[in-house]
Amino acid sequence: MKVGMMRYGNRPNKIAMATALVCSHLEIEFFYFHPEDVNIEMKVIKGKFLEKNKWIEKETSYPDIIDNALPKKGTEYIYEELKQFSYLTTTRIGSKNEVYELMEQDPYFNDVLIPYVYLSTLDELSEFIEKYQSLIIKPARGSKGNKISKLSKSEDGYYLSTNHSEDYYSKDELAKFIKEMANEKKYIVQPYINSITKEGHPFDLRIHLRRGENGEWDNLDPLPRIGIGNSITSNLSQGGAISSLKSFLEAQYGDKSKKIKKQLNEITTTFPEHFQKLYDFEIDAVGIDIGIDENGKLWFFEANTSPGPHYYEIDVAQLRGGYYEYLRGKLNV
């Protein structure tokens, strides 16, 4: 069986190296390639193969399985070509609002879903603002922490904060600004969940769920991600920090940490199967971000179909190898 890992970096990264080593023990031929390495006319790929700890470039036929990144604009035709000959592991699950709308169909998610509305006008937000006082405004499609704002009501106006600034707006000024934002792209608005440390830094827990041996779901230890400075998000791409789960929960919640850990264990065990039922294609991996408010209640922030393997490279590579083996039997290749 031949497996290709398709990513947008020109050089294989740590996860590619780790996965190649795992595959060598499973007698799976593994190579790394960029979408531009695909020659559609000749039906071949210029791939990078790991040989004696060095990446060697060789021309190869299309693989049985492609562990793919999601398509970017301008590459869709390459994906359509490869789908005709190879099994692609990863499919887009939808934008934030699309995922929320699907999750609302299953009562299992009711207790962790944060109420939301779509950004349109300030008048239509007025009831939401009066009820919650502080709101989060974020793009419906993934942003890695970019273009996320916190809107807070004050006695004489409003404050709009980002990871880099805080600006005051009168009602008329904010109404104009929100209208411009809503015309620019689709945003969702939610109550601000006060998921902050004792030191006042925002945080969330990234839970990495991935199929492994026999196609069964496995989970890696939730990773606390902590915002620093004036950050309103905890995204690592915006300068956040990380911590180990056990020490983080004990430091922040003391005696309550065991109860919270038990709730997290339940989510990692039950979430994947419920989430999978929302889709008619097999999901290979999903990263979910969970916040914890001042009362210790868990809230779902968002889901990502391509969770970054940073800090988990070896564990993720082993799970990937087990998943490839499962697909070998499923696809009979």
Describe this entry's structure for a reader.
The protein is an alpha+beta fold. It has three domains: 2-90, Rossmann fold (3-Layer(aba) Sandwich); 96-112 and 195-305, D-amino Acid Aminotransferase, Chain A, domain 1; 117-191, no CATH class. The chain is built from eight helices and 19 strands. The strands form four sheets. It has a six-stranded antiparallel sheet, with helices on one face. Strands 14, 15, 16, 17, 18 and 19 form a six-stranded antiparallel sheet that branches. A four-stranded parallel sheet has the order 2-1-6-7, with helices on one face. The longest helix has 20 residues, at 257-276. The termini are close together. The mean pLDDT is 92.
Give the topology, please.
Layout: E1 2-6, H1 14-25, E2 29-33, E3 38-39, E4 44-51, E5 54-61, E6 65-68, H2 76-83, E7 87-88, H3 96-103, E8 117-118, H4 122-132, E9 134-139, E10 149-153, E11 158-161, E12 166-169, H5 171-184, E13 187-191, E14 203-211, E15 217-219, E16 223-226, E17 241-242, H6 245-253, H7 257-276, E18 285-292, E19 298-304, H8 313-331
Helix pairs in contact: 1-8, 6-7
